[in-house]
UniProtKB/TrEMBL annotation:
It is a single-pass type II membrane protein. This is Cell division protein FtsQ. Coiled coil: none annotated. Residues 52-122 form the POTRA domain.
Amino acid sequence: MIKSAFNEGPRLTSSPLVKEHAFGASFLLVVLLLIGSLLYSTVSWMWDDQRLPLSKIVLQGDLHYVSANDVQFAFSRLEHVGTFMSQDVNVLQDVAESIPWVSHASIRKQWPDTVKVFLTEHKAEAIWNGNSLLNSEGLLFNGDLGQVEGERVKLYGPEGTNEEVLSVWRELEPKFEALSLSITSLVLNDRRAWQVILDNGIRLELGKESLEERIERFFALYKNLGSAAERVSYIDLRYDTGASVGWFPEQELEQENTDD
């Protein structure tokens, strides 16, 4: 009998350690699948438009001109208001800041269905060109003139000069207040000439140059006018020295006094 010169190879057997690793891997895979399924179900539920809709608005801030109805109406113009999870607060902020009188909006979502809206209003500093408003920074905003509480100075000027005109008014007004006067209107015309109308009805023509010197000249003249200032219609200070004074006719002045 001829025996094979090759030894028989080892047989493959399944050891307990291999079985244990296979079972552990399978168990881990099942756990991961369950967790993934649970997360998917949870996220799908939370992003469902029928779940957690944003249905409440809490309005905050020191507000005089903006109401909760204004905010609600602004949000209602959105094509779609999402859920607590899906709605982008930046979109809501942009919408809130489009409301007249709103200077800045801060939006925060509160679980599960509330939008907290904190608003800062523009502070109306002046009326610009008869139909717009300037805030305290000299910026135009679209507030309703009819809603303005109290009197505001009327400022006029070419497009883009709103900040300049407001700055000049702020500089001049305290000087006039020292004489118990107040500026009701300040005009910068297209030729860059300045005009002031005071609360006592006097119109000052100041021209383009030497504004401060001409204002000081008016103060010196006004102090010398005394009671005669009631008859002054305008004072033209567009001279190197001196001024031209326009007077109300005596009859017109007497009629005004009678009406009073």
